[in-house]
Design a protein that fits this description.
14 helices; six-stranded mixed sheet; 438 residues; alpha/beta; globular; single chain
C-alpha cells in the first residue's frame, strides 16, 4: 500500500515558520468568553450564574443530550454575564463571560490509580464524557460519541491523524516531538476501549523527526504501528486518511465506523490521556500563530475562551499592513474580520497574511481545463457542481454527487479562472443538509 489517495495538491507549506518553535504556555490576563456551543450537537446548558466564583477545571456548562459536550472554566474568577458573543464562525453564540482574577486556582483533579492495562471500556468513555473532550482538528465532534459506535466489535483500526497536512500549522507536530509518550499512552487508552482494534499513527513524510520518535516509542507495542504517508494535501481529511491507511472507501453517507475505523487527531488523543489518567477536563489547547504578517510566529498552549486579540499580542503582535486574518489554515480556515472573538476547543491556528490573494483576482468563466477534476480527492466534477449550485439545481447537484465534496479547497486552488468553486459548492451542501434536517 502506498499510503496515499488519488488527487490532491502540493501548496506552499509554510511550516518552517513555526516547526522549530517549542510549545509555550500562555496564561490569559483579560476576560474569558466561553461559548456554550463549540462542538457538533446541542449547545451545553450553563450551570453557573452571574456573580458565581469559578475555578480552573470547574464544569460551568452541562451537555444537553447524547451528542453534546460538557464545558469547563479555563480560569478562576467571577461570572460576569451570560450573553450572546461573536465567534470565529461569524455568528453570535450564547457564552459565559468570566472576569479573570489571574489567580488560576484549580479544582482538585482525581488521578486514575489504575495503569492503562487495567482500564475498562465504560470508565474510559465516562471519563472522556465528563471531561468534555471533543475532536480538536476542527469539527468538534464529541469524543465519547465517536467512541460509542453501534458496531463496537467491528472496529479494528484506531487512526491517529498526525499528518497535519494543512499548510502553516505545526501544533500537532510539536505535540509529537515534545509529548510523544502521552500520545502513545492516549492511543493505548483508546485501544483498550476496542478489544479487536490495532492502532495506526499516520504521519506525512515531511516530518522525519516526528516519524523517528514515534516509531521508536511504538516499537514496544505489538498493536501500534506508524505509517509514513507521502506529503500531499488533504492527506489528513478523514476519508482520504482512511483510504490511504486501510484501502477502505467511505462515502458522505457513511461514518468511519462503517469501515471499521475510528479517527482522532493528535491533540484529541492528548486530551483523552489527560481526561482518563489525570481526571483533567479539556480547557486548554495548542494554537499555531503564524504567517508572513506575524511578528514572532510560535506555538502557544492557550486557555479556551482567550480572545484572539490577546493571543496575537502574546505572540508578538502583527506587522503593519496585514491584509488578511484567518482562523485556522489557508485551505480550510475561515477569514475573520474581528479579533474580538474567543478561542474554542477546536481553534487550531491564527494565520496573518500580508496579501489577500483571493481578492487580487476577478473570477472569469470556466475554460474547461479539467484541473479541478484531476485534483479532487472526492472524485467529483467541481466545475459542474459549481454551475449546478449557481443555478440552484439541487437535483442535478445530488445526481453529480455533490455531497461527496469534502470542501478541501483543492479545486479553487488550481483553478486558472480563479472561480470560487469550493465556496459555491459548500453553500449548496449546507442547504441540502439543512433541508434533510427539516
Amino acid at each position: 500500500m502506498k499510503h496515499t489517495f488519488k488527487g490532491g495538491i502540493h501548496p506552499y507549506e509554510g511550516k518552517e515558520l513555526t516547526m522549530d518553535c517549542e510549545i509555550k504556555e500562555y496564561l490569559p490576563v483579560g476576560e474569558i468568553v466561553i461559548p456554550l456551543s463549540q462542538h457538533i450537537g446541542a449547545p451545553a446548558k450553563a450551570i453557573v450564574k452571574k456573580g458565581d466564583r469559578v475555578l480552573v477545571g470547574q464544569m460551568i456548562a452541562e451537555a444537553q443530550g447524547f451528542v453534546s459536550a460538557n464545558i469547563h472554566s479555563s480560569v478562576s474568577g467571577t461570572v460576569k454575564t451570560i450573553e450572546s458573543r461573536l465567534t470565529s464562525s461569524g455568528q453570535k453564540v450564547m457564552s459565559i463571560v468570566i472576569d479573570n482574577d489571574k489567580q488560576f486556582d484549580e479544582v482538585d483533579y482525581v488521578n486514575n490509580p489504575k495503569n492503562i492495562e487495567e482500564l475498562e471500556r465504560d470508565e474510559i468513555i465516562e471519563a472522556i464524557k465528563l471531561a468534555g473532550v471533543v475532536g480538536m482538528g476542527g469539527a468538534g465532534f464529541p469524543t465519547h460519541v465517536k467512541l460509542s459506535p453501534k458496531n463496537i466489535d467491528d472496529i479494528d483500526t484506531i487512526l491517529v491523524n498526525a499528518s497535519e497536512c494543512e499548510p502553516y500549522l505545526t501544533s500537532d507536530y510539536r505535540r509529537l516531538l515534545e509529548e510523544s509518550d502521552v500520545i502513545i499512552d492516549g492511543l493505548r487508552i483508546v485501544l483498550k476501549a476496542f478489544k479487536n482494534a490495532k492502532g495506526i499513527i499516520a504521519i506525512e513524510d515531511n516530518k522525519p523527526e516526528a516519524i523517528k520518535i514515534m516509531k521508536d516509542k511504538a516499537k514496544q507495542y505489538e498493536d501500534i504501528i506508524v505509517n509514513v504517508m507521502p506529503t500531499k494535501y488533504p492527506e489528513g481529511a478523514e476519508r482520504q486518511l482512511i483510504y490511504a491507511n486501510t484501502g477502505r472507501y467511505i462515502s458522505s453517507k457513511m461514518l468511519p465506523a462503517d469501515a471499521g475505523c475510528v479517527v482522532h487527531n493528535v491533540d484529541t488523543i492528548h486530551a483523552i490521556y489527560e481526561a482518563v489518567m489525570l481526571g483533567k477536563p479539556l480547557f486548554r489547547r495548542v494554537m499555531t500563530i503564524t504567517g508572513d504578517a506575524a511578528n514572532a510566529p510560535c506555538n502557544l498552549l492557550i486557555s479556551v475562551g482567550t480572545s484572539y486579540s490577546e493571543i496575537i499580542e502574546a505572540a508578538g503582535g502583527l506587522k503593519d499592513g496585514v491584509k488578511k486574518l484567518i482562523a485556522g489554515g489557508p485551505m480550510m480556515g475561515k477569514a475573520i474580520y474581528s479579533t474580538d472573538i474567543p478561542a474554542t476547543k477546536s481553534a487550531s491556528a491564527i494565520l496573518a497574511l500580508s496579501q489577500d490573494e483571493v481578492s487580487m483576482y476577478e473570477p472569469s468563466a470556466c475554460i474547461r481545463c479539467g484541473r479541478c477534476v484531476s485534483v479532487c480527492p472526492g472524485r467529483v466534477m467541481p466545475n459542474k457542481l459549481a454551475d449546478l449550485a449557481v443555478n440552484n439545481d439541487i437535483d442535478g447537484f445530488l445526481k453529480y454527487n455533490g455531497m461527496e465534496c469534502c470542501e478541501c479547497g483543492c479545486c479553487s486552488y488550481v483553478c486558472p479562472a480563479k472561480r470560487h468553486l469550493t465556496q459555491t459548492i459548500a453553500g449548496t451542501r449546507k442547504l441540502v443538509l439543512a433541508n434533510r434536517k427539516k
